[in-house]
Amino acid sequence: TDTEPAPAVSETAESIATMEIRGAATIASAAAEALAEQAEAAAAADATASDPEAFRASMRAAARTLRETRPTAVSLPNALRYVLQRMEGDSVDRLRRSVVDASDAFVEQLDRAQEDLGQVGANRLADGDTVMTHCHSTDALACIEAAVEQGKSISAVVKETRPRQQGHITAEALRDAGVPVTLIVDSAARRYLDEVDHVVVGADSIAADGGVINKIGTSGLAVNARERGVPIMTAAQTIKLHPETLTGHTVEIEMRDETEVIDPDAREEIGEIDVENPAFDVTPPRYMDAIVTEHGQFPPESIVTLMRELFGEGAAEPWAE
Length: 321
Ligand code: RUB
Prior knowledge:
By secondary structure, the protein is α/β, with parallel strands linked by helices. It folds into 2 domains: 7-115, Four Helix Bundle (Hemerythrin (Met), subunit A) (Up-down Bundle), CATH 1.20.120.420; 119-311, Translation initiation factor eif-2b, domain 2 (Rossmann fold). Helices cover 45% and strands 12% of the residues. It has 11 helices and 10 strands. The strands form 2 sheets. The protein has a 7-stranded mixed beta sheet with strand order 3-2-1-4-7-9-10, sandwiched between helices. Strands 5-6-8 form a 3-stranded antiparallel beta sheet, covered by helices on one side. Strand 1 (130-133), helix 6 and strand 2 (155-159) form a beta-alpha-beta unit. The N and C termini lie close together (8 Å). Bound molecules: ribulose-1,5-diphosphate.
């Protein structure tokens, strides 16, 4: 039986869908927190307060609502899986507590992983380096900020990142960290690569073959960086590893609304054309120099070993009806 998710869950799902909450790590922690709020609400609601099975069903329904918001960042289902796999107890109160504890533990681990990978990524950067960024990644920022904290002087060339201009968020965060920022349009990236020592990007998902799924434009940037001889790293904590790719599944690339690309009046004026707006692309492993995680840095081709270690039991779907 299906149960209406708590208002807090619907609100979080809506915020993820509209990208008010965005970025793989931020989506994951918001989803885990929403499950804790669902547990509190279900433990207090008439229909579920004294019925453990109804409580469990309401948790699975909430997870499905959150799961259906955006398809590409695997951190979202990985967060839901982490919390639901730890849901246990024969009373609603025990179930509630296990969900809240798992949610807290997940968010804490996420923060610690980001801090740890920041140290690893920072070690790749030298005093005086200029980095180029694409989109807004809290994992990528953690590396640059850690380098600054190590006393290195770092400057940044920040790609605007059409169509939603998440580069503005990165520019502000770096400026706050005391990093001199030069903002450029995406198509200026190759011209500026000559002045750059490292490209640092995040990831929404990492496939078993080492392919990096990140904001549209990452793959072109990586190919250009290789051609210019500039190293490129992906900063990605291990919740970005996509367990289903171990069994041959591909990662779904989100297609977003055309109004993000062109306003309806301009489109009307041009006449009959198609507009497409893929949000992400895949960078083949051979164009990526390193994947930086909380367990250290890996060549993309060997990430599968870590993936088997962490997700070897397969990708169960504990939210299935
Ligand atoms: C965000 C994006 C980010 C990754 C990593 O895309 O591509 O690089 O999610 O971010 P969108 P983080 O804006 O469409 O969500 O390191 O913060 O997890």
